[in-house]
Amino acid sequence: MQAKLKKSLYVGLAALTFASVAGTANANAAEKTNGKNDTAKISNNKKATSKKQVAEKQTAKKVAPKKKVAKKTEPKKVAPKKEKVYPTFEYNDLEFDAAKANVNATGTAGLYTKPSSRKGARLVVSKAKMGQLGNSKNMGNTFYVDAMAKNSNGTLYARVTSMNKQYRGWIYAGRTDFSNDLSQITGGVNYYETMTPAALPSQTDGYYLKGALWTTPWRTQKDSAKVGLESASGYSNTDTFRIDNATTVRSGALYYHVVDNNMPSLTGWVYSGNLSGSMTADLGYTIRYVDQATGSTVDTKTVPLTALGQMSNGNTIQFTTDLANKFIPTGYKVSSLGNVDNVKAGGNGLVYVTKYNASQLKLNVLGDGITGQTPLTGNDVTSIPNLTANQISSLSGKQGTPITMSDIEKQLFNTGAPLNKFDGKTVTDDNGKTYYYYEYTYNSAMTNQANAKANYGDTLNIYYNRTKVATTNPTSQQNTNAGNQDYLAK
Question: Is pLDDT at 245 greater than 70 in this prediction?
Fold first, then answer.
């Protein structure tokens, strides 16, 4: 029974499946027929397809064109790029004397961060600009050298720095070694002297500083620096200076080398415009000389404190007759002191004086082949000293009164006094091999005898003995003393 039922089910399912497949096939065939015969007719459940949709479908059915395949090509062979070969270098630091380490640009080479033939060197200053610096009068545009480089090709370079520190780098320096002598340098720079000797002024002493003192004139050497006056023990702005050297620099400015009269260890260079030859009343001591007979002022002088013995150490110094005599006008003697301050900056001293006539001196030679009275002149000796009014004050006295020869000798003629002895000029014998000179020594006896009746205002005859002295060392001397020779009779 079950078997018959199963068979009946299988037969029924098979029949149903067949009917379903057949119905589907018939429906598909009918749809295709309707689509071919009349596109405007639709089934009961479908809308008509528009022409546009039909065109789009037809377009979509078109086959896309085939892509073209590019042909494979072999890459071109490129020759390898040759790298630039740079020379090797040898470097040396140089230590020239600061005064001999200076150069000036020629404008024939530029300045680089490295020697210009080295890899990576960059231009710092062009040739044209270096030429402008070389022609400039600016002190800062002088360069100094502190190193040398030499490449494997034999080319030399110098490391240079401008005095104003604005430019620094390497510059072509020729092919001649300059490590021991900078005058041999060539190429982009030449050796340069930053100081040129100049003449001394007619007045070389008694100056006061108004500006900075330098170890060397400003920017003439790489280590030029100000002298620390503030830290100089014992220095005062009332100190006087003397000039012993002079120079001009690149800018044309004139500099003087000066020495402090109060502290000889204090020296330096100063611009000439920063020196003053006169002492101001607020820094010095003012002395007023008044004629006692008339009450009129004969002379007024402001002098530095150091000239009166005040050495800036705070000691109290009294103004005395001896100090008054140091600056007394010629032809006068101190009569008395009026109101006087102690020696200090801004101090004043009143000095009453009496007019006297001054005697003059006539120098004469005795002995060693000399007969009679022969004048002794500047042609016979190395020098006859200049003397100040104070040094010859003993020659002044009231006209018509007898001279005091002992005072005159003490001041002028005794051993160690300025007119005690002279050395003559060195000469040679006929064959030019033996040197000798004459020594002139003061003769007190003859001088006192000759002037026994002389009065102040008279010309006094002074006598010297002449003695021949052999020497192997000829010398010459120039008179550099302060003062004048007004004491000598014309």
Answer: yes
Of 150, 47, 56, 140, nearest to 102 by C-alpha is 140
Please, are residues 112 and 119 in contact by the beta-carbon 8 Å criterion? no
* 81 burial via Cβ count (<10 Å: 0-12, 13-18, 19+): exposed
What's the alpha-carbon Rg for the chain, to the nearest Å? 56
Q: Is the CB of residue 295 less than 8 Å from the CB of residue 357?
A: no
Look at 228 and 152; give whichever has higher pLDDT. Answer: 152
One-letter amino acid of 354: T
Whole-number pLDDT of residue 279: 72
Residue type for position 206: G
Report the 10 Å Cβ neighbour count for 100: 14
The Cα angle at residue 422 between residues 418 and 423, in degrees rounded to 5 = 140
Q: Are 254 and 198 in contact (CB under 8 A)?
A: yes
- Bridge-based pairing of strands 285-291 and 348-355 is parallel
pLDDT in tens, 172-211: 999 999 999 999 999 999 999 999 999 988 888 888 888 8
Query: What does residue 41 show for φ and ψ, rounded to 5 degrees?
Result: -85, 140
What type of residue sits at position 93? D
What is the model's pLDDT at position 233? 75
- Angstrom distances, CA of residue 66 to CA of 61, 63, 114, 449: 15, 9, 64, 150
pTM of the complete model:
0.49
Q: Which two tokens stand for residue 275?
A: 């020196």
Residue 474's closest CA among 418, 434, 421, 416?
434
